[in-house]
Amino acid sequence: MVSQRKSSSKAAQPAAAAAATEPAAPPRAARKPSAAATRRAQQAAMHAQTTEAVAPTHDPRAAKASYTAQPAMTATIAPSASVLVKDPKRADNWKKLPVEQLTDADILAMPDEEYMNDVQLAYFRRKLQQLKHDILLNAGETTEHLREDTVVVPDPADRATIEEEHALELRTRDRERKLLKKIEQALARIDSGEYGYCEETGEPIGVGRLLARPTASLSIEAQQRRELKQKLFGD
């Protein structure tokens, strides 16, 4: 029996030595999660973020208190410089100053019973004549510009720019030509004593409207009716 144990131990020693010299097996690589599992994990994380309660960064009551504590403020809009306001202090300037020194504010401040008296007619005549003078002066300058720009420009871009400027200037002069005709008609109405009264209703047009548009021949209401008629019937 002792001999059997010795033989078995001797047989086990080579096996143990072989096992010691045999290289160890490499570690098993970890399994990567599938694409479906990754997608489910991302969806779960997004759901948790969207459903998580967000803590306020400030006290809502503090904001409400600061808002209600502020007094109500009303916006103040400064009147435009072109809008005239009737100033009672200027009501008698037309009696003291010559027509050449009167302003639009002085004419607007005149009493209603003095509507289209000799002073107002003289003032509007002067205003229309000055407007006529400016239009004729602009027309002369346009003619001079067109005469000076007769030199041929070789560059197409520069030539197109000059032609566009000429076209714009000619359109402006055409509008002024039509305005010049209205100025002549307004001066004729001053001579006939019809200036300042609506040619359709005979009612006063108003000093304010005439100061803004000296060539006006219709009241605001009559002008609106005419524009509506032209819009509906095209005549």
UniProtKB/TrEMBL annotation:
Residues 1-68 are annotated as: Disordered. GO terms for molecular function: zinc ion binding. Residues 193-227 form the Zinc finger DksA/TraR C4-type domain. It is found in: Cytoplasm. InterPro entries: DksA_N (IPR048489), DksA_RNA_pol-bd (IPR012784), DnaK_N (IPR037187), Znf_DskA_TraR (IPR000962), Znf_DskA_TraR_CS (IPR020458). The keyword Oxidoreductase does not apply. Residues 1-23, 32-53 have a biased composition (Low complexity). One of its GO terms (cellular component) is cytoplasm. Coiled coil: none annotated. GO terms for biological process: regulation of gene expression. SUPFAM superfamilies: DnaK suppressor protein DksA, alpha-hairpin domain (SSF109635), Glucocorticoid receptor-like (DNA-binding domain) (SSF57716). A zinc finger (dksA C4-type) spans 198-222. Keywords: Cytoplasm, Metal-binding, Zinc, Zinc-finger. Residues 120-190 form the DnaK suppressor protein DksA N-terminal domain. Belongs to the DksA family. Interacts directly with the RNA polymerase. Transcription factor that acts by binding directly to the RNA polymerase (RNAP). Required for negative regulation of rRNA expression and positive regulation of several amino acid biosynthesis promoters. This is RNA polymerase-binding transcription factor DksA.
